[in-house]
Amino acid sequence: VQLQASGGGLVQAGTSLRLSCAASRRTFSNNGVGWFRQAPGKEREFVAAINWNGGSTYYADSVKGRFTISRDRDKNAVYLQMNSLKPEDTAVYFCAAAQGASYSINSRLYNYWGQGTLVTVSS
After folding, report:
1. 26-45 pLDDT, tens digit each
2. What are the distances in angstroms from CA 86 to CA 40, 61, 96?
């Protein structure tokens, strides 16, 4: 599975962005999918995840209530709606597909990764 993350950009604090993660070569509609981010000089951290059918989601405390993960299995895509963005949300955002139908906050349990999309939030 090849993943492509898109939708990043430069925005002001308080505004919104929607990131997309599309899969090519093979569907990932039966895989759990996670979003991670890595800020300059920091380790990659978990942001949000969704199980194979969208029936279960999980969020990092830092984004809970502001970000929403969703998926469209027909379009073979996963989205991350980011509202009320803060400067501390600035990072490269990666989507990743797990081997199985569930998800994890542990990045090592994801086998397939996209190249990342940069989100910059100015104050």
Report:
1. 778 899 999 999 999 999 99
2. 15, 14, 23
